[in-house]
Amino acid sequence: MSSIETVCLVQARSSSSRLPGKVYQSLPEGGLTVLEHCIRRLEKAKVGPVYALIPHDDSRMQTFLEQRSISFIAGPLEDVRARFSIAAGITGARWIVRATADNPCVDPEFVRKSVETIRNTGADLFAYTGLPLGAAVEVFASSALQSRHGTEASDPAEYREHVSLHIKHHPEVYDVLRVDSGLPYEITSRMRLTVDEARDMELMQLIFGKLGPDFDLADLLELFGREPEIFEINADVQQRRFPAHLFAHRYSA
Predict the structure, then answer these.
(1) What is the rounded average pLDDT of the residues 216-232?
(2) What CATH architecture does domain 6-182 belong to?
(3) pTM above 0.90, yes or no
């Protein structure tokens, strides 16, 4: 495979402790699944090819993707960072857009802007703050992903599960850049757009039923203004907590 500038990698697997098979569930308007909507939105961003990044022994996921002619790369189940490193080596991409399959509302415009920003600034990692949970991606340099930090036996096990954590924990080595989205945080903080539990899926069914598949964040903000009560459906779903992230803020906008 020839080298490319930017690649989008979607972490995907069949197993889920809280909502088994969630990425295979269909949403209104065309019957596409949660995973397919995520991939479709990344393709709309037009920043580079999109691959599902799956465990090598996930035969159900592999069959699902092959039946739909969706490109994928396989690697270890537990060592997610190794999975990304394999994909970086195969594609030769300089920049990696990391997304997860349980986020069917990822916003194409902010994906484009994220890639433009990291290309223009040369940061090692970039992400927007102030977006609804489930609407954002992070972009990082393949060189930072594949550096020695997080690969030594003495490093925390979390560095294998949480792909870019080693970058965020070493601001003295890596240039980590975060920029405010400019969206009203008092609203976006009340919008949970990721799928972990049945109530999350209930909200997704409502959103896609009301807005169709091609909505953007402006449409979601407008929907919140008209019907804020529907976003209460999953408001008390507990988000899984990760280890503390140490960010180096170069600037904010």
Answers:
(1) 98
(2) Alpha-Beta Complex (3.90)
(3) yes
